[in-house]
Design brief:
The protein contains eleven helices and eight strands. With 347 residues, the protein is of the alpha+beta class. Strand 3 and strand 4 form a beta hairpin.
């Protein structure tokens, strides 16, 4: 049975002590974390995900636990461990090894479904989710149950986790390190054929960049008044300069637009590529991807503008010249069809 523990907590605004009631939970693997705190960005989480074809098979879990469960890990064991290395599966939306205990670092985006569950869980908790099979997803399918088209039931168990941080608790340097790691991870995933995972990594990086805007502006203002001191803080923990910030942001938008093109999302690709060209007008790849997106949307005038801008940057580029020829051919065909219809109307 749990008893409330009254702890004095000091407010930042004054030195007065305030009584705060906090609950201490005792679990088989040792002391767990308290109150409303759950895993946050950077937390190492010891989790197990299992898939059940039918919900009435839940009664067999206790038997399965005795066979497949590994010895409980304490909080210290997880603290000293590293994330379990595994490839993101291309044949399942769960993206994690099923049935085995796995160590995940929250925020790396190995599986958005699992991470979304973990964000609202406490140690020693289990949640159950229903998965609807995907029929026309971008290269993603859910294993079908033997019972037909019934929704699939999955359970996510959180054994324990290490402390993490919310984005507003992180320093600008820490956020910048996460941005760069997301960008690098996105490139690795794209080269391995995991386009959806790459798009997720680039999106995560862009979301963190939004929170860095004010820091970059403040730093740029201070840099005009005094020279930046690089001796007090390691270079890896320094927030980016304004030029570096804009360059990385443009590259992320450009890379995201490429993923969206391959995922058959031309409207999103057009928006991402347009942002990239605004941030870096000299980025040839972004102009080419903007032209491709507009061409897919049948916005031929905008596509021609993008390709012509690309030719200003890289004259005689074969891909741009070929695209312009295709657009000219499509325009002639459209005009011919329109002329034929008009002639029939007035004949």
């Amino acid at each position: 049975m749990m008893e409330p523990i009254h702890l004095p907590e000091t407010l930042q605004s004054n030195a007065e002590a305030v009584d705060v009631t906090s609950w201490l939970s005792v679990c088989p693997s040792g002391l767990s974390y308290l109150s409303s705190y759950g895993p946050r960005l950077g937390s190492l989480c010891r989790v197990r995900v299992r898939l059940k074809a039918k919900t009435d098979e839940a009664e067999t879990e206790k038997t399965d636990d005795k066979v497949s469960a590994q010895p409980d890990q304490t909080f210290n064991d997880v603290t000293e461990s590293v994330p379990t290395p595994f490839q993101r599966c291309q044949d399942s939306v769960l993206q994690v090894p099923l049935g085995d205990w796995t160590t995940l670092r929250l925020g790396e985006g190995h599986c958005d479904i699992t991470e979304a569950c973990l964000e609202g869980m406490k140690a020693e908790e289990k949640c159950e989710i229903l998965l609807t099979p995907v029929e026309n997803g971008p290269g993603v399918t859910v294993p079908q149950s033997s019972g037909g088209n019934l929704p699939l039931c999955a359970t996510v168990e959180l054994q324990t986790f290490t402390p993490g941080k919310e984005s507003w608790e992180m320093s600008p340097g820490e956020k910048w390190q996460w941005v760069k790691s997301h960008k690098e991870r996105g490139g690795v995933r794209f080269r391995s054929g995991d386009v959806w995972g790459a798009a997720d990594s680039y999106s995560r990086a862009l979301k963190l960049l939004i929170t860095l805007c004010s820091h970059v502006k403040e730093q740029e203002k201070k840099a005009q008044e005094t020279q930046r001191d690089t001796n007090t803080t390691e270079e890896t923990q320094q927030p980016p300069s304004a030029d570096e910030f804009n360059m990385i942001k443009a590259e992320l938008h450009s890379n995201l637009s490429l993923c969206q093109l391959k995922l058959k999302q031309p409207e999103q690709a057009r928006a991402s590529a347009a942002k990239a060209t605004q941030l870096e007008p000299g980025g040839a790849k972004a102009w080419y991807r903007l032209g491709q997106a507009c061409q897919m949307l049948n916005e031929l005038d905008e596509a021609k503008k993008a390709y012509k801008k690309l030719l200003e940057l890289q004259p005689d580029m074969p891909a741009a010249l070929k695209a312009l020829k295709e657009i000219t051919s499509r325009e002639k065909e459209t005009n011919a069809q329109l002329g034929l219809r008009l002639s029939k109307m007035f004949s």
